[in-house]
Amino acid sequence: MSENENQVKRILYVRCAPYKLTFDSYNLQEVGLGNAFCRKGYEFDLVYYSKENRDQIIHVGDRKLRILWRKGFKFLRTGIYPFLIKKNFLKKYDIVITSEYSQIMSVILAKKHNNVFLYNGPYYNMFKIPFAELIYDRLFCKKINQLTKKTFCKTQLSADYIARKGITNTIVAGVGFDAAKFENEKEVETNTKILLEKMNGYRNLLYVGSIIPRKNIEFIIKTFVKLKKQKFQYRDVQLIIVGKGDAAYKRKCQSFVPSDLENSVIWYEFIKNAQLKFIYQAAQVFLLPSIHEIFGMVLLEAMYFGLPAISSHSAGAGTLIKNKANGVIVETFDEKQWVKEIESILDNPQLARKYSEAANKTICDEFLWDQIAGKIIEIIN
Predict the structure, then answer these.
(1) How close are the terminal C-alpha atoms of the chain, in Å?
(2) What are 119's strand-pairing partners?
């Protein structure tokens, strides 16, 4: 049966976590997936947490992606949306996809609708207070496993994590990249130009993401300082850190930069997400030494734009990077080892080109949203 002939037409995707998102700041995974479903002939409604109720329509060919920005309640880091529980609302949808096993709405929706699928990312306790996690797992994990049709996991680490909790009806679907969002961005905005001017004429090591401890920013700084102190030939290398976060943690990280290198570390709080394409293309190496990373959309982005990446063995890196083929995974937080891998890329244009071409090919061949949606549709059907 072709996708156009398929009887399943209306999908509701609920991002349960009660945190407000913006299009400019994030590469929103759910929008990328929704666009792909629309291209495959489905109507796709997406629920996002908001402080006000409003609808947003995105036209995808002859289909519509409808974003329902809705008020909800926060309770112990979980979101509750009363309007979703109404039978007349849910019966409009053939399929409901809900995000994260740890959100109470996932349990409620699985009880209220007979065709619910779960999409799970974390492989560690990201949302719950430790004592609440134990109670929640005991009360609900086996029930989720019974009531949901299938759990799509972003990584194998995620599948292994929830299997230990009793959720075993899983398949690793991965995460996709929304190329259209970036390819449609043609003009360099003023804010982006300012950073590009700072990067011009230098070899740039790049980090993009939140400035928080689990992202391990202090390790990036210490590694960069060791690199710069090591050889005179790296006098034209600078470190670009794009992101904002905890002010106290940022000050701590800045304290590791010696005074003679302060001008070599560029801190830049915000670049519109689609504008990052110009920054990736102006850098030489992407660094992601996260202690924990649900996936790492910035890694998908950097690799798509052919930026050689060096990453810790987080969930996304383990999924995307084939070590020393399309990028580098460093298993330990050893500054010397990271410096060695950075040097190998900076000093060897042929190796850099190999990683660049292979990284782009990996994303284009395996990790565009149309491919991820195709895997999910096979299971749904």
Answers:
(1) 10
(2) 99, 152
Spatial separation of the C-alpha atoms in residues 7 and 209, rounded to whole Å? 41
Coil, helix or strand at residue 118: strand
Question: Residue 63's Cα: distance from chain center in Å?
Answer: 25
Backbone angles phi, psi at 129, to 5 degrees: -65, 135
CB proximity list for 138: less than 8 A, separation 6 or greater:
none
In 3D space, the residue among 68, 311, 319 whose CA is nearest the CA of residue 177 turns out to be: 319
Closest to 120 (Cα-Cα) out of 209, 11, 10, 16: 16
Cα torsion angle, 364, 368, 370, 372, sign: positive
pLDDT of residue 6: 47
Buried b (16+ CB within 10 A) or exposed e, 41-51: bbbbbbbbbbe
Task: Provide the b/e sequence for 151-174 (b: ≥16 CB within 10 Å).
Answer: bbbbbebbbebbbebbbeebebbb
Buried b or exposed e, range 292-302, using 16+ CB within 10 angstroms? bbbbbbbbbbb
Bridge partners, residue 208, by sequence: 242
How do 203-208 and 170-172 pair as beta strands? unpaired
* pLDDT tens-digit readout, 82-132: 999 888 899 999 999 999 999 999 999 999 999 999 999 887 766 567 777
pTM: 0.89
